[in-house]
Queue: 4 jobs
Job 1
Amino acid sequence: MRFASDNTSGAAPEIMAAVVKSNDGYDRSYGADAAMGRVTALVRKVFQAPQAVVHLVATGTAANALSIASHCPPWGAVFCHTHAHIAEDECGAPEFFSGAKLVLVPGDQGKMTPATLADALSRTGEGGVHGVQRGMLSLTNVTEAGTVYSPSEIKALTDLAKARGLPCHLDGARFANALVATGATPAEMTWQAGIDVLSLGGTKNGCLGVEGVVLFNPEKAWELELRRKRAGHLFSKNRFLAAQIEAYLTDGLWLRLAAQANAMGQRLASGLAAQGATVPDAPANMLFPLWSPGTHDRLEAAGAQFYRLFAPEGRERARLVTSWSTTAADVDAFLAALQP
């Protein structure tokens, strides 16, 4: 009954086997390994983007911060949702690496709308030299509220940014979960929807520890590579990162892992609703239910793990996240413990 985060799960057996295999013998360092070439070919095939470039890092924070730094000048504004991960959970790393300012855009359930983004765009960059200029757009899918943007929703937002000449970033820490939830292809969710750079998540979906920065504009590849080195995120033994992503993207493993996480999320959501909990829209693997006072204590006494969140008076709110390794038995045990 471990639902605190998909980060708390282990690595998938296929990923671990790939890492062990990559330990045999010798290979070139700093990304010149043979596996990295195969990863680039896989990314280009999976995303239907023959010019795409991918650089690997170990953390989502590094992927986001370096993506933003390579696309936004230090006098620029990064438009992101009020509760975006880059705004609330990265200790100022995007600002530190880019020098840019985050401009928070409101929207219900973790999603900005064309109206809220248009308003933010209209109010930024109008003060001449005295204020930050419009810099770039950053979206998150799956959002921090557990909701999901469809490709058409992404396109509506990137169109507004592109009209101002702004590049667009997608924080895809749970990108595979978003694909499974929407049925979209990787291309439809990214460059075909106006995304220029993607933080491709692996760690939350069964990898040991790897994230990719996928650049659909190869002109930024060298700058990203230099920034990665300068920031201390270029791995000498890159082959261990590449081995993970190669296994992850081979034969649809990443989508199968996400499908299991999402299916268990939906099983949990249905069970919670059946027992009277209020479950906001959550089509992927992250839920934010509201339930009666005393439920937190009862669940934790039974061994359940989750995050307690602020809730309206007379209610309790939790964050529950399922992972690739969550089973139906895990979900059913939690639902049994939920009963008074």
Note: The radius of gyration is 20 Å.
Job 2
Amino acid sequence: MPTVAFVDGVKIQFYPDEHPPPHFHAVFAEFVAQICIDPPKVLRGSLPQSKLNTVLTWTAGNRDGLMRAWAAIEAGRKPEKLA
């Protein structure tokens, strides 16, 4: 499961063999949430509210890079790191 970014201590990861809609996994301590890329929203799981707000804002600003990472995973390639 490649980690493409850290956002305020939250790991942003993509898992191989994923399913639509395009999403990533946000991991912080014992919390895990699946976050839809467009529109940014929680599909499953949870994060502390302050972390969730930060991740959703970051997602909106990094949509293109996240979609490239999703496409790379679907094609069996390693995604690029995001800032």
Note: Helices lie at 49-61, 63-74.
Job 3
Amino acid sequence: MFVDLQLASVYESYSIDDSTILYDRQLQQYMKDYIIFGGLPKPAMANDFQEKIALLQDIYQTYLLRDVRMYVRNEDTVGFNKLLRLLAAQMGSEVNINELSISTGLPYKKCEEYLYLLEQMYIIKRIEPFLSNKRKEITKMRKVYFFDNGIRNVIYNSFNELDFRLDNGALFENYTVMQILPYMGRNANLNFYRTRDGLEVDFLMSQAGKIIPIEVKYQSFSIAKNIRTFSVFETIQSFEEALLVNLDLNRKKGKTRYISGSVFPKYFMSL
């Protein structure tokens, strides 16, 4: 939701069906701020950088460290805090519960229990792999994401500018996931794909019998080109359209639709 009505008007002026590069710097900055500070109302509405951080830290202290910890055994407190930090560091990656158990000192079953707790309390979201050929797929581990980038960055202890962060790709990917989830129907699924042959697709959204492969790139593009990942995946699974979420290009080439992250939610509104 846009507080600035003029900015909202700019957002509405862009169509994902127009072949264009999104040049509006204010709209791009709005997206980057959202990626850093998340979408919780009070931090999002605050104008001051330090105020946003203070509000997020307060939410973290009162919700995660007090309310959620009510369900954590006293003897597990140190391990649980380590678990949160590890999940923040591994956002967008496949999570190995056995490795989490070793690193946190928590029993394997307790790690499973606390991951389930964090998911039920809408702190994290785990994405399962898409399995079509059990001989070729190499993992059953799930990827972990956070429901709010701001909360993740509090845990990660970094609010540095997005363009100068090593984790900007993971943050952009997390942002993309959180734009997809509200538009998924009850019978829809969101997965990722990875094979022994080295083929990886960031996300596969399946709904009403259709699959949409989605790649996320924290990059600027000036032209659209064929994406090898999609071409190879199509030999395994047919699809009508694939999406490449990027910083600024809206354009269609063959079955691949390049779409700017700033207006990405409009794609689902058009379905």
Note: Residues 5-12+21-269 form one domain.
Job 4
Amino acid sequence: MFVNPFNKAVTVLDGRVTVHDESAIASPAMDRLAYTAVFGDPDDRDDARWLIWEIGQSVGVRPSSIHDLYLARGRGETGGFTVPAMNIRGMAYDTGRALFRSAIKLKVGALIQEIARSEIAYTDQRPAEYVAVMLAAALREGFRGPIFIQGDHFQVNAKKFAVDPVAEVNGVKQLAREAIAAGFYNIDVDTSTLVDLSKPTLREQQRTNYEQAVELALTVRDLQPERVNISIGGEIGEVGTQNSTVQELVTYMDGFNETLAKRSPATEGLSKISVQSGTTHGGVVLADGSIADVKIDFDTLARLSKVAREKYGLAGAVQHGASTLPDSAFHNFPRTETCEIHLATNFQTMLYDNIPTALRNEIYEWLRENAKDERKPTDTDEQFFYKTRKKALGPFKKRFWDLPPEVKARLARAYEEKFSFLFTQLAVTNTRQVVDRFVSAVEQHKPQPHPDLAVVEAAPDDADLSD
């Protein structure tokens, strides 16, 4: 039977949660609840996730859409900052705690926690788990306000689409259904893989991209909860390919808006547009394991963001693959009014750099066997491990969660320092007020999985619960 770890500080009656003492939810009891939400047996796990959600609803920590803030930016009512979208892959709860500690310290409201379609698979973090962990991390640190959880690269696979387009698009729709039900109210629809540069005109090159993006956007709108306008992003150029142009953006947006108007005239469209300006996901790893220098075309970003805002009312352009950039680059994003950047790989690198050597060697040996098919003949060990170690995050998830306290403390310090640096460079410090001005965190309740949740209260730490 599920144990309520908060005793009388949090009570459940008739499926509604009341928080009597908010200090209790910012205590080690939340650590235990988050752990159950991930590693508990199915019934206890579901109860834990529900309780975390409902505690959040009670104290005002609610999954929300950044859509209205982004449209306000498109109208010129706010700006001058770049929202960081953080892909929290490994040791998600502790990393999330460090993220929210930094956000509280710097009064950051404009930040996103996200996970991509591919990451959901290889990190073994389904949407319901991810939402519960991010909410628990925020509650543990005393963060208050809307939480922006995003589905990053809900992407159509071009090869699978060529074989069976309906099945491949339906796969993304099914993921959107699962994610939105869990609390993902920000979705990046990525059909940029379907751009065909062999076609003679820009319109033909982008046609399948924008038509399938509309198809997915309509599904998202059909699934969104009442009073929630999910923030939907489109994408015109696959990350790692040639740089996007203003003409491509205009072609995509005109095609998207015309197609949407024909199919569903009253349906709200996009809030942002992802572009390519010189980065690759994870960076380009050299033979010695170092990352090749990247040169971002900030002039292109500035032009694309300006057109996105002034012509289409969007927040601006989104930059993917930014976490491996040099520290000296980040201040340029708010300067060019880039609305959002996506950060992932460097946080993973920090994790691997700080875990015990024995665990890292064990993971690398696992990769030699379980990821050997991904190794190119020319790969050095450094290149191979750098490119594949993300695949170990799921199989070793519990080991990461169970790292010794001193290792977690070392990682926490490193993460807080990095998050604080990024928040400052991206000019999102003191954005708590602007978020509160434009974003309404809608209260939503979910049915209690097992009505006997309130029966058992937590026993003292030294009690015997073996029976």
Note: The chain has a mean pLDDT of 92.
